[in-house]
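Following up on my earlier thread - several people asked me to post the actual chain instead of describing it. Fair enough. Here it is, all 549 residues.
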Amino acid sequence: MFCYQCEQTKDAIACKGPTGVCGKEERVADLQDVLVYLTKGISMYAHRAALLNERDEDIDLFVIEALFATVTNVDFDKDRFLTLIKKAFDVKEKAKDLYKRACEKHLTQVETLYGPALEEEITGLDNLLKFSKEVSFEKEKEKFGDDVSGLLDLILFGLKGAASYLDHAYVLGKKDKKLFAEFHKILDFLTKEKFSQDELLKEALEVGEINLRVMKLLDEAHTSSFDNPIPTKVRITPKKGKAILVSGHDLKDLEELLKQTEGLGINIYTHGEMLPAHGYPKLKKYPHLAGNYGGAWQLQKWEFESFPGPILMTTNCIMEPKDSYKDRIFTKGLVGWAGVKHIEANDFKELIEKAKKEKGFEEDEREKFITVGFGHNTVISLADTIIDKVKSGKIKHFFLIGGCDGAKIGRNYYTDFARSVPKDSVILTLACGKYRFNKIDFGSIDEIPRLLDVGQCNDAYSAIKIALALSDAFKCDVNDLPLSFILSWFEQKAVAILLTLFHLNIKNIRLGPTLPAFITKNVFKILQEKFNIMRTGEPEQDIENILRK
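Reply from S.P.:
Thanks for posting it. Predicted structure:
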């Protein structure tokens, strides 16, 4: 194993040996490397077919789902990866045939390909594990050196993050053939034999542009399915009664569960990144969507253990279940853990029956609430009021403090930073990093709350729309606004969002708690020169430096 795609990677270098910090065993990590390699081979054919206007949706979707399956904390099940790899060889042959037929149709010469496009089917776990050594990150480093391989992985990891968002949009019925084609194009690019740093940086920014369009598509999918989120008070203490907890990111799964539990006397609670669901009118209409339980993903081992009902894990982020709740956690979609029950399609019968048998909450806890639902539609509708308060000096600065949460030491920085923000400033937040401070009462500036929860990590698109609307209103560049980005990162979706911000030429971002292990000192120096990105430091000093400018 050599895995360094997430922030918690061992010693800020890489996870090696039998098990990664996330709980991923070596065989799973190696099979993931094989699967990614095979998706590149599929895309070599699919990209060339797309240039001839020939596409196959099944091929497109497989590549997206294969990438998503390798994102941190999604799938830990060896057997599921063996199935995916078997399918990848079949899909590659299908893509090869698609390309050949496209050439025949358009009277074009079939290009002689190389590398992953030519890989013959490998069967058997031992043979696949042996082959994985030839397509590992370590092999890539040997071939290209640390700087180039780091940039290649920056592109790949950003693409993985974007793939997760594109899959969410697809589940909700939103598709874009051009986006699928551009994924194939990037994966094909990654198979080249030689690279320059300039072309790699250009391609990384292209991934950022692709992710911007993907997030826009997902935003459209969410709002067309569930309406625009609106400010909503969410109960964060439990009610008496039977209960099911829903974690992950997938709002469609939540909706289906709400429908199937309607009238059964079972309360549904959100967890982690599902919290923003309460702001969507077509989800909040269900009276048994009772509230939010717990905090960010890394606390699940304690929170799931104490929750008196079954848990549904949609998409990432799953951790190794403790024996105390392993019999009452269920996975769905691309999420998997060996020995954990997996729900196929939208059949929640077993989950619901489990909820009926568990004790549920035996009494009401004292009511406590937080507010969510400040998406771009709501905030932009307040633009005139916000602008007036900025011009009058009542609002001096905006701080976007958000991103992934995690267990690593140093993340209290974001709590301390939020607490130290001057009272004439507004905090925008999104993703699970908000749990570091979203239960603090920050008050308001007249009718504008000082803490505005924009939503899930993909709702970085909302934050971007808000920033662009403000820049338009003040007739200035985003970098000239009284707006600062204070970001925490953990996995590949955060990488995709960072590349999107770079694509938009947003500068002066503070990133922490540690820098990605795949970003070398030389590459970070280039990013500093182009975008003035910097590491987080001490909260009060960082605020002082920001407000001094």
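DSSP finds 19 helices and 18 strands in the chain. That should answer part of your original question.
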